[in-house]
Amino acid sequence: MDLNATFHDLEGASVFITGGGSGIGAALTEGFLRQGAKVAFVGRSDASPFVERMARETGNRPLFIRCDITDVTGLKAAIAEAAEAHGPIGVLVNNAANDQRHATLDVDEEFWDWSQAINLKAYFFACQAVVPGMQKMGGGAIVNFTSISYMMGNSGYAAYTTANSGINGLTRSLAREFGPDRIRVNALAPGWVLTEKQLDKWATPEALAAHLDRQCLKDHLAPQDIVESTLFLASRASRMISGQAMVVDGGVVVSG
What we know:
The protein is an alpha/beta fold. It is 47% helix and 14% strand.
């Protein structure tokens, strides 16, 4: 990964990332490692090969903790383990999500609860778990990943877009509540980032061409495009930015 900027204050920072072993999350883990941060991440699948590759390629070994973030008790335990290993969490990146497609008329209560648990509930409780440590340190940064899907009014995954919208409400409320503690809370809304999952499931030539036509910038988004924006929001370079939703989508939606 060839980064365009270095954020010196992230060197040595204790960073916790959900879903940090695959897709955008893996790129985030690598990006923070290359800044010299102490990175812990969680995921459901074994990430040992990824950990070894990161240690070899960056010279900085991340801490992987296997965890299903819908298990709030397990998530809180993972955050405590990371804080014990690396010091109090100074940067939380709520990245893990699941955008499984679904028809509204097929959704039952079990699916709805599962979707909210992974896409919204886990975000709230991860924030709750790191705030006390950030308060003691005199500040911190939280980056909550949302999506432009709800801004576009996309169909095909109403439970997911509901959670996306809720993440923005959560972000604004926490930014207001904990701003006096110098805890910054922002949302980051990626556009269509061509991860392996997206390429395998939905990125047909026709769909890609149609989406690119909607972008102002005529390049498809890659995971690295999201990494550097996240690093900025995590660093003191954005010290007076809080309660905001940063859109990184090549110019599809217009915010403000």
